[in-house]
Structure formats: structure tokens, C-alpha cells
Amino acid sequence: IMSKTKDQTVMETVDPEISSTCEDFASVEELFNLARLCTQEKSSDRPTISDIIGILKDIVFSTEVENSTPPKMVALHEDMSSYTYEDVLSMTENFGDTYIFGYGGASCTVYKCLLNNSKPIFIERFYEHHRYTADFETARDLSVGMKHPNIVSLIGYLVSSYENLLFYEYMPSLWDLLH
Predict the structure, then answer these.
(1) Residue 126's CB: how many other CB atoms inside 10 A?
(2) Which letter, b or e, does each residue of 152-164 get, where b requires 16 or more Cβ atoms within 10 Å of its Cβ?
(3) Is pTM beyond 0.70 here?
(4) Is the pLDDT of residue 64 over 60?
(5) What is the number of other CB atoms lying within 10 angstroms of the CB of residue 60?
(6) Where in the chain are the domains?
(7) Gene3D superfamilies, alphabetically (predicted)?
């Protein structure tokens, strides 16, 4: 294989039966390059196991994102009706650490940010969508339609194949009201 790759493309070195059914040539090329790194003659030139795991995770994640459906924003309040996923990323600077308000158990991080009208909101961002789908669905289903002066209202949510978000109105604390 190594001698073939000098004169041929990666896909030309792959078994034709496999390459004819392949739709993700970029991932095949990344895996092939990883295999070449792992077979370097000098062990010091080979990646460590943790490097390999990181590279494989990156390949899987990029494939999931590439093959995923676009995020679907559902607005339950007029404050959220004009926002897109890209707007949310912009408002939170790609969910930067400075916007972290807290953590929702083992399944999510809570962010505080301002809408374009300067109204503060909380965003509950669920980790690894496939593992915490039930947590997200339970929180969403319990919050939809729940109205009480002492409970924050769900004003929207976002569903995608790689991430789920819940948007809540901001309720000031007693400290906020006194200062």
C-alpha cells in the first residue's frame, strides 16, 4: 500500500468494492493518513494511543456534523421567533466559558446571554446528544406550557442531530433586585 500511494490517490489504493460504495471520501482519506502515521518505521514518529483516539473522535464528529440535519429552532415566545442557531453561537461566542452560568447535573451546561434586544436569557446546552436525549426531552416536555410566577418559562428550544438546547426566560434573583 505504501508504494502505491506515492503514485496514486488514496481512493485508488482502496479495494474497488469498498470505494464504489463510499460516500465519505474525506473520512477515508483521514483514516488512511492515520494508518500511515501508525505504520511509521520509527516508533517515535508514530502517534500515541491518546493521539489516535483524539483523531478518530474528530473524524467521527466531523462526519456526524456533516451528515446531520440542520438545527431546528422552535420559538415558544415572540422573543425567540427571529433567531437562528448561528445567532445563538454569536450571542454566546460559540458557547464560550465567560457565558457559563452553571451546570445542570451531569447532562448539561447552563449559559446566560443577552438577546439582541438586551433581554437576558438562559440556555441549557445538553451534552452528547445521543446519550442525553431522554434528559432533554423530559426537561422540554415538563417545561412546555408550564406557567407559574415562581418558575422560569421555556421560550424556545433547538433540536439537532449533534446538540439540543433549551431557552429559558431570565428570572432575576433577590440579589439582582436589591443591587
Answers:
(1) 21
(2) ebbbbbbbbeebb
(3) no
(4) no
(5) 11
(6) 2-67, 72-178
(7) Phosphorylase Kinase, domain 1, Transferase(Phosphotransferase) domain 1
